[in-house]
Write a structure and sequence with these properties.
single chain; alpha/beta; seven-stranded mixed β-sheet; five-stranded mixed β-sheet; 14 helices; 20 strands; globular
């Protein structure tokens, strides 16, 4: 039986082009089942167990090694690889699943699947790539915790084919991409919420009409005060119902959770929203409405490079700290704009300190790509200039000193956070996108892990409460300290 390298050499030019190495008996079985095959998967092994992924996710199969190392990346990121001019991250699936790797020569060529996740390509290293197997989609069984040594959330199903039991992996889930089915369920939930809101709105309208009629009756009989007593509770009730709709819509459409952290801003924003949209037209009917409602919520320069003025505001808010080592926690780091900006600022603010920034996010694409970030020539001549260098290819990136300060990690901050004592927590606009129970858990973590002279910076429109801590406003920056 030929090797996969001999038989799958045309996968590079077509998603389905693959030659299977089959015995005569297997070939007869394939011919018999050919008319019912409606799903194809690329099979491979990890630690001697059989796995597979949908062939439509595979761009090609390759053997490669000597990947370009990128400092301060996740343990399972082997580096980057030049795939015909396109630089792609290389992920070792064995390390991602905490599977032990047998000792081998560092120069050995790795078996690699080139997969597509959204618009991004990744190289995924496995033990052995086997072949392409065609099956009936209806034969795929639901996942079960007994199958494999990996988290069940990464398994889309199990299927028996050609005398093997394959564990079918969900590449989109592994890399944190929302599947079409999840998008559909989200849309259905939003539609159900809209129908509920419309029904409640109709009920309120009926009550308002009753109040109007009561007012007319009161006017005709000279009892205006009685009408007011009927009208005012109706308006308050309508406002309360509308606000509840806003709360539910933000949670379902944007995973934005209303709590004591942001309730003050939400109520203020609702008043403004009602003026913008007009009374009776305040409902958030889709994700676009929710985005528009939340637009003023986010802190300045969220998701982009900081201006020099804003960097100065942050610098003024930070306390003097003579420590030789400064530890920073930046949960929800996103694509890395904030982490790099913070690193440059802290290097300027504390030039003699050794600074370590733990930049965490649950978006694997973001934390995998952040160490590779480049900057535009405009940014390179701004206040970032002392911390930017030009590469041999002509692009601009941050200096090794700045990159070495930041540890980008795939980590959910609501889980256990094994961090050393912290000098600065920088968590802008994070809390509002966590359920209330998770908000409390992280605040407890802050209170426990931040040093006595440490500070916490959260979003401009968020308020946190930690016993023994107080808030101080420095320009647009809210700083919490003991």
């Amino acid at each position: 039986m030929g090797t996969i390298q001999d038989k799958l050499n045309i996968l590079a030019s077509t998603t389905e082009a693959a030659v299977q190495s089959l015995s005569q008996e297997e070939l007869e079985e394939e011919k018999k089942n050919a008319s019912v095959v409606d799903y194809k998967m690329v099979t491979f092994s990890l630690a001697g167990k059989d796995y597979a992924i949908d062939i439509m996710k595979v761009k090609e199969i390759a053997k490669a090694g000597n990947f370009t190392y990128v400092p301060n990346t996740l343990p399972f990121v082997l580096g980057v690889y030049n795939l015909r001019g396109e630089i792609i991250p290389i992920i070792d699936l064995r390390l991602f699943f905490n599977i032990e790797i047998p000792p081998h020569d560092s120069n050995v060529l790795e078996n690699m699947l080139i997969v597509q996740v959204g618009e991004q390509f990744f190289g995924v290293v496995v033990d052995v790539i086997d072949k392409v197997v065609g099956i009936q989609k209806s034969t795929i069984q639901p996942p079960h915790p007994l199958f494999g040594d990996i988290n069940i959330k990464y398994i889309s199903g199990v299927v028996e084919a050609q005398r093997h039991l394959y564990i079918l992996l969900d590449i989109d889930k592994i890399f944190g991409l929302r599947t079409p089915e999840e998008e559909r369920l989200l849309a259905e939930t939003a539609r159900a919420q809209l129908e509920d809101r419309q029904a409640a709105a109709a009920e309120i309208a009926a009550r308002e009409e009753a109040a109007r009629q009561a007012e007319e009756t009161a006017k005709s009989s000279g009892k205006k005060n009685a009408a007011k007593k009927v009208e005012e509770p109706a308006k308050e009730e309508k406002k309360a119902v509308d606000l509840n709709f806003i709360y539910d819509s933000l949670k379902n459409l944007k995973k934005f959770y209303v709590s004591a952290v942001n309730e003050e801003w939400i109520k203020s924003r609702y008043e403004q929203w009602e003026k913008e949209r007009g009374e009776g037209n305040t409902q958030l009917q889709n994700e676009s409405d929710a985005d528009e409602f939340l637009k003023p919520f986010f802190s300045k320069f969220n998701g982009t490079w900081w201006s020099e003025h804003y960097a100065s505001e942050i610098a003024k808010a930070l306390p003097d700290n003579p420590a030789k080592n400064i530890v920073v926690w930046n949960p929800g780091c996103g694509k890395g704009f904030e982490s790099y900006s913070l690193a440059c600022l802290l290097k300027k603010r504390y030039p003699n300190a050794h600074i370590r920034i733990y930049a965490h996010d649950i978006d694997l694409l973001n934390v995998s790509n952040a160490p590779l970030m480049t900057v535009s020539s405009e940014v390179s001549t701004d206040w970032y200039q002392p911390y930017v260098t030009k590469t041999s290819g002509g692009s601009y990136t941050f200096t090794k000193e700045i990159k070495d300060m930041i540890m980008f990690e795939y980590h959910d901050c609501v889980h256990t956070n094994n961090l050393p004592p912290i000098d600065l927590v920088f968590a802008r606009d994070l809390f509002s996108f966590l359920p209330e129970a998770s908000q409390k858990s992280i605040l407890d973590d802050f209170g426990e892990k931040v040093k006595g002279n440490g500070v916490i910076i959260v979003g401009e429109n968020e308020n946190i409460a930690i016993p023994g801590w107080s808030k101080k406003q420095s320009g647009s920056v809210a700083v919490y300290s003991k």
